[in-house]
Design a protein that fits this description.
single chain, alpha+beta, 6 helices, Alpha-Beta Plaits
Length: 175
C-alpha cells in the first residue's frame, strides 16, 4: 500500500485546527479510511475522530500524562502560537492555535518533547506519536467558532468522566 503524505499549509499568524494521535491508536481502520476515494478530507477526518473517540487503542493520555500534556501545550505559548483551545482525548489531541512559528516546527516542538517525557513516564521506548497530523487553516470567523465548539465539546460528547480536565479554551477562562 502506498501512503501519500498530506501537504501541510503553514503561514505565520494563520489560525489552524490541528489534530494528532498516539502511534498505538493507528490501526488498520485508520490506515484504510484514507483509501476511500469518495470521501472528502473533512469527511475522512470526521470518521477518524469518531473512531478514535470510541477506540481504546493508544489511550495513554490520562492522569498525570493528561496534566503534563495540558501544561506543556500551554507552556509553548506565546513563542510558538497563540492558544485558543485544546482538547486532550485519551488517544489524540485537538488544537486551535494562531501559529507564530512554522507549523512543522510547532508540531515537532510539541510532539518531540512530550513523547520523550511520556515514554519516560511509561517506561517505554520508540515512537509515541503518529508521524502524521491533520491541519486545517481556519477560513473565517464562522469556521473558527465551529472548530472551537467542536474542540470544547469533544470530551463531553465522548462521555469522558474527566471531560472538564481535558479542555482548555481561552474564552471559558475570562473573568
Amino acid at each position: 500500500m502506498t501512503r501519500k503524505s498530506l501537504h501541510h499549509y503553514s503561514e505565520l499568524n494563520t489560525y489552524q485546527f490541528v489534530t494528532f494521535r498516539t502511534q498505538d491508536s493507528v490501526d488498520a481502520y485508520l490506515l484504510g479510511i484514507n483509501e476511500i476515494l469518495d470521501l472528502s478530507i473533512a469527511e475522512r477526518q470526521m470518521k477518524i475522530d469518531e473512531y478514535c473517540d470510541l477506540s481504546n487503542k493508544g489511550c495513554y493520555l490520562t492522569g498525570e500524562i493528561l496534566t503534563l500534556m495540558m501544561s506543556y501545550i500551554k507552556k509553548c505559548e506565546p513563542e510558538y502560537y497563540q492558544l485558543y483551545a485544546v482538547s486532550i482525548m485519551p488517544n489524540h489531541v485537538h488544537l486551535l492555535v494562531q501559529q507564530k512559528q512554522d507549523l512543522n516546527v510547532v508540531m515537532q516542538k510539541i510532539k518531540g518533547a512530550t513523547a520523550f517525557y511520556i515514554n519516560k513516564h511509561l517506561s517505554r521506548k520508540g515512537h509515541f506519536w503518529s508521524k502524521s497530523y491533520f491541519d486545517k487553516a481556519i477560513r473565517d470567523e464562522k469556521h473558527f467558532n465551529v472548530v472551537y465548539e467542536y474542540i470544547k465539546n469533544n470530551a463531553v460528547k465522548a462521555n469522558l468522566s474527566d471531560a472538564d480536565l481535558r479542555f482548555y479554551g481561552v474564552y471559558e477562562n475570562l473573568i
